[in-house]
Amino acid sequence: MRIATWNxxxxxxxxxxxxxxxxxxxxxxxxxxxxxxSDEAFPHDEVGELGxxxxxxxxxxxxxxxxxxxxxxxxxxxxxxxxxxYEAEGVLLPxxxxxxxxxxxxxxxxxxxxxxxxxxxxxxxxxxxxGWLEALRATVVDELPAHGQLAVLGDFNVAPTDxxxxxxxxxxxxTHVTPPERQALAELRSAGxxxxxxxxxxxxxxxxxxxxxxxxxxxxxxxxxxLAYASATFAGAVTDAYVDREARKGKDPSxxxxxxxxxx
DNA sequence: ATGTCAGCGACACGCTGA
Length: 264
Fold this sequence. Notes:
Blueprint: E1 2-7, H1 15-25, E2 29-33, H2 44-49, E3 53-57, E4 65-69, E5 74-78, E6 87-88, E7 91-92, E8 100-105, E9 108-114, H3 124-143, E10 150-155, H4 179-190, E11 194-195, E12 209-210, E13 222-223, E14 226-230, H5 232-236, E15 238-243, E16 259-263
Helix pairs in contact: 3-4
The chain binds one DNA strand through loops.
């Protein structure tokens, strides 16, 4: 079974690229992030023509996650256990955002997640990010006993080590690399998950994200922030994993490339 | 050679978030 994750930066703006990639890469299950569309506006018919059912958690404009599957969809769970909302300047948004969806596909439990960006260390959004990662950990702890093969895939907005960014000296005072963010990932792994490290098809580090600005992609100024965190049973079944950096090239790409994981 | 993009409100482009 082939399982992939891709932050598409608007499924509406990216639809031709997404459909083309689904047709060629032919994953059985795909986790998408940053849909920027509602469940009703999601292109269910278009992905359906390629054989996918879709479970969607989105509301429009920002965020939004989905799981597409050719091998069935069961037990859909929208949002995390006790998921925090974003509190800006003392004002708590009325409900959690659309950043996590859990689905069982062909016997594999899959979560598609879009971790909050954090904006800058010390910002209320940064505190929210750390709290959100803790709710993700609690959700994994809640689900792991009932599921052998389980994986959390998505845009984690954290680079696990200094080697996962193009130049650590460019990230002073930045989110994505701070010790508390990395500690939150370490606690997630301690709950029983393994970082499935993809092959680099070019260069020496399998980056998954390159900023649109300043020629970051041609200069390979990237980051590895799209991750697959897998249970022991899932990780033990992995036969291959790679970043499809071809999907970052050409006209109207997302700023993220898909991560593809093959299970034997 | 290239030096950001998407959605929104409102109908032109500035604002927000990434």
